[in-house]
Design goal:
The protein is built from four helices and 14 strands. It has about 260 residues and is α+β, with helices and mostly antiparallel strands. Strands 4, 7, 8, 11, 13 and 14 form a six-stranded mixed β-sheet that branches. Strands 3-2-1-6 form a four-stranded mixed β-sheet, with no helix packed on it. The N terminus is likely disordered.
């Protein structure tokens, strides 16, 4: 398994971003949609795990986190949409290894609802238009279906643009808390960050570790095209050599949890 939130009007100043801490910040990076965090200062790209609380305003419901962009982030009047990449999981206390009876509904006003699948398959969502100033800020509406038990739930998503030249985002995850203690939620989010969101062996970024990852790395290592955001310098020492190949093989053989 591999796997959008309150978008409010933003000015270009760091102080404005501080008002929307916890939202998902979107921008373009390396030719694709990138996600980041707004945690009280200037937004930082690279964050792919976000936490939300169900039931604060209405039972089993939230419209956060939201999606924030700067004006001009995306082509005016284009569209951004989402996909759900896998079945929703529930935290068992040590892993997100349970597919629960509950399903999450995603909607936006009259659009949707789109339901998380009952098994691991990709579900197409809907698209929402970018503003005439190139800004995209929207609150999707998330509703936990029956039996809506207390628990910690994980939804894996990706974003795409209607503009062919803009690549899809990497998978990102939203951890939804339904009445569980803060410490449990922190442990669950850390599990996602340390496992799913750091799976470097998934070199082609398709959500699986398989022969295609090995083939993609070999081609990159030999001087061919590398997947977006990837480098043959796998060990990060500034050189591409046999140590990088050994490091990738070790990661590949370990796989991902």
């Amino acid at each position: 398994m591999k796997a959008i939130v309150t978008i409010l009007a933003l000015s270009a100043t760091p102080a404005a971003f501080a008002q929307h801490a916890g939202d998902i910040y979107l921008a373009q990076e390396a030719g694709r949609i990138a996600t980041g965090a707004t945690t009280g200062g200037a937004p930082v790209l690279g964050e792919r795990v976000f936490v939300s609380e169900l039931g604060l305003a209405f039972s089993n419901f939230t419209d956060s986190p939201g999606f924030d962009t700067l004006p001009g982030a995306f082509p005016a009047n284009s569209n951004i949409g989402f996909r759900i990449r896998a079945a929703m999981r529930e935290w068992s206390g040590s892993a997100f290894d349970v597919i629960p009876d509950e399903r999450m509904e995603l909607a936006f006003g009259p659009l949707g609802p789109v339901l998380t699948p009952t098994s691991d398959q990709v579900v197409e969502g809907f698209t929402i238009r970018v503003g005439s100033n190139g800004q995209w800020h929207r609150h999707l509406e998330y509703t936990l279906g029956e039996p809506a038990d207390s628990g910690i739930y994980l939804v894996e998503m990706e974003l795409f643009s209607s503009v062919p030249e803009i690549g899809d985002s990497e998978p990102f995850w939203i951890v939804f808390n339904q009445g569980r203690p803060e410490g449990e939620v922190a442990a669950a989010a850390a599990w996602v960050r340390d496992g799913l969101a750091s799976c470097r062996a998934d070199f082609d970024g398709d959500g699986f570790v398989d022969f295609f990852d090995f083939d993609a790395f070999a081609g990159c290592f030999e001087g061919g095209a590398c997947p977006d955001g990837r480098s043959a310098d796998f060990d990060g020492d500034g050189f591409v050599d046999f140590f990088d190949f050994d490091a990738f093989v070790a990661a590949f053989e370990q796989g991902c949890s």
